[in-house]
Amino acid sequence: MNDMNTLILSDSDSDLRRAAEILKNGGLCAMPTETVYGLAGNALDSGAAAKIYAAKGRPSDNPLIVHISELSRIHDLVTAFPDTAEKIFKAFSPGPVTVILPRSHKIPDATSGGLDTVGIRLPADKRARKLISLCGFPLAAPSANLSGSPSPTSAEHCIRDLMGRVDCIIDGGKCAVGVESTVLSVDRDGDVTVLRPGFVTYNDLASLLGEEHVRLARGITERVDEGEKVLSPGMKYRHYAPDADIAIIDGSREQFECFVNSRRDEGAFALIFGDENVQLPAVKMGLTSEEQAHLLFDVLRHLDDIGAKRVYARCPRKTGVGLAVYNRLLRAAGFEVIKL
Ligand code: TXA
Ligand code: MG
Hints:
This protein has helices at residues 13-24, 46-56, 83-92, 109-112, 126-135, 155-162, 202-209, 253-260, 289-305, 321-332, and strands at residues 7-9, 29-31, 38-42, 65-67, 97-102, 117-121, 139-140, 168-170, 182-186, 192-196, 214-216, 245-250, 268-272, 282-284, 310-314, 337-339. The chain is α/β, with parallel strands linked by helices.
């Protein structure tokens, strides 16, 4: 699409200053955060927001998350800041959580995808916060992948998807968390709906606010139809779609082994936790949910690199951080689950 030259920068202070100059001139920068890399531009500039959608190939009704460098910056960006929202930020940020609130006039339509709300995130990654404060304005940043491909958890992933499409990419190594932030909305009564599960879990929120005040949105573990009205536009798009055709195999370890070992399809791979006994070529996603979250997107890209045609994946746990892993894998699998 574009043919711009993309600078590859380090995360040194002087390179962060170069990136900030680019952003101040309306340019785009892929930046590391603790969750995944973000494709950043000035959140208050509709021109920059339009460029983000174009660089990603993203539908323009899917709103961008706005990143701030300190909590006090939120007041200009929203028209209401309920106690519950403040409590959530104080408990879990800087960190991997995004809170959706009514947006102020400072946030242009282009940034919010035409919605009257905005998702605000205060990232834990110090380089991201430093970059935002050097800019002096908040940064809109969706995940720095091409729309439809797995979110980037390393600079290499960004380079593959975005060379020639952004002005610079900051190489900050691998992301610590590896799945995107927990996205939640807070209603007028202070009740919370989790729209996208992440490293801040249902239990974390329930312990803070009481179980009766937290619910999980329906789209997290079920398909919602394209035409259906959803709380979060991102829910209706098929994300993280690798070339390989993935099926989640939901059963005990023994059932999984038995199922997989009866398969002989060309180009078939098993996606396992660790030491399952399988006869197909296998790729590991890690034993704990945290490890799986950290590795998942890299593993999905790797499966394409090695030419996997069909992938039989062990079913991640559906609780704690595991719910975030399950939610992403479910989308990569186009919701194909084989229940044993
Ligand atoms: O961890 C993250 O959240 C990363 C890093 C870069 O911060 N960002 C990220 O952004 O994952 P993105 O755009 O790939 O995913 C944001 C999700 C989308 O599904 C979008 O629909 C939803 O959050 N979202 C954003 N603003 C919203 C709003 N105002 N109302 C409802 N959903 C919103
Ligand atoms: Mg994304």
